[in-house]
Amino acid sequence: MPFAPASGTKFLRQRKPPRSSFGMCRSGTLVAGIIVATSSAAFLAGGCAAPSARRSPGIAIESQITPQPVRVGAATASLKPADGGEGAISGARIALEADMSHPGMSPAFGEAKEIAAGHYQGRVTFTMAGDWVLLLHITLPDGQKIKRPINVGNVQAS
């Protein structure tokens, strides 16, 4: 039994919008949503890689950190970046960033200088024992920038 309002006026039913055979409004809300989602996915898939990943150069970096075993305090990183087809890379700039593998610790910074053609050396200070990652920020002679991590595990107490 329908309810009548207290004012005594007739009870009016609200009309529902017409539905299509798929159980959705004829306005095409679902179709519009699918189009937006599909075009957004295509846009994101096309260009969300970092520039260094899109133009991934075949650069290998030979590295050595001394003293061994690595201890808390100053350490020397010897680096030899090489291009797969052209050999040693000379004239690059390499910034060093040492980060602990867990959050909350301040990073340590340094710079590697070219001491011979294609051979770089820099110092960084490990402030506490544990696992570190030495992140190389490399600017190649042509201006291209790349980043390469070096895992420095088990830095020991002095």
Helices, strands, pairings?
Elements: H1 29-47, H2 51-54, E1 59-66, E2 73-83, E3 87-88, E4 93-100, E5 108-116, E6 119-126, E7 130-139, E8 145-155
Antiparallel strand pairs: 1-2, 2-3, 2-6, 4-5, 4-7, 5-6, 7-8
What this model shows, in words?
- The chain is mostly beta strands and 158 residues long.
- It has 2 domains: 18-48; 57-155, Immunoglobulin-like (Sandwich).
- The protein has 2 helices and 8 strands, in the order ααββββββββ.
- Strands 1, 2, 3, 4, 5, 6, 7 and 8 form an 8-stranded antiparallel β-sheet that branches.
- A hairpin with a 2-residue loop joins β5 and β6 (119-126).
- It is elongated.
- The relative contact order is 0.17.
- The model is unreliable at 30-56 (pLDDT under 50).
CATH class of the largest domain: Mainly Beta
The computed structural class is: mainly beta
CATH superfamily of the largest domain: Macroglobulin (MG2) domain
User: What sequence of helices (H) and strands (E) makes up the elements?
Assistant: HHEEEEEEEE
How many helices does DSSP assign?
Answer: 2
Characterize the overall form.
elongated
- Which fold name corresponds to the CATH topology of the largest domain? Immunoglobulin-like
Distance between the termini: 86 Å
Query: What's the CATH architecture of the largest domain?
Result: Sandwich
- The count of DSSP E runs of length 2 or more, i.e. the number of strands, is 8
How large is the radius of gyration? Answer: 31 Å
- Quaternary status of these chains? single chain
Classify the beta-strand content into a percent band: 35-45%
